[in-house]
Amino acid sequence: MREVVGGFDARGRRFAVVASRFNEAVVRRLVDGALDCLRRHGVAEDEVEVVWVPGAFEIPLVARRLAASGGYDAVICLGAVIRGETPHFDHVAGQAAAGIARAAEESGVPVIFGVVTADTFEQADARAGGKHGNRGWDAAMAAMETASVLEQLPKPEAPAGGAR
Length: 164
Prior knowledge:
Blueprint: E1 15-20, H1 24-40, E2 48-53, H2 59-68, E3 74-82, H3 88-107, E4 111-118, H4 121-126, E5 128-130, E6 133-134, H5 135-152
Parallel strand pairs: 1-2, 1-3, 3-4
Antiparallel strand pairs: 5-6
Helix pairs in contact: 1-5, 2-3
């Protein structure tokens, strides 16, 4: 039996972080947590690019472009969607999650969902370095581990009849 387990030594790997400016008070702390995590695991500052977008809804498009560029081992998506008095929350959170998943599936690059969804600002804040940890840090850990796992797996074959 062969068992594949990802590691967290990320030296020499490149990462992109896509962050939402909406609810920036929370998201900035998520970004700080992700960057701190990457640094502590050997990632040099010039191996990380942070790209800010208007809101969580815009994250998937930019994440997909970065993942498809071939320049990154993983893309970390960070945002905060806080429930309001309308169903807008459900649409934004659902579309962000689905789009981030599609970006990973289509590119073959880990595109990590680190978008906090919460009923209140206090709940979101607690997940951005408060009593519930920092979901930015957690997303960076997932990015490093998934990139490591993929590196250990066989590479996908080129489509039949395609260029090699």
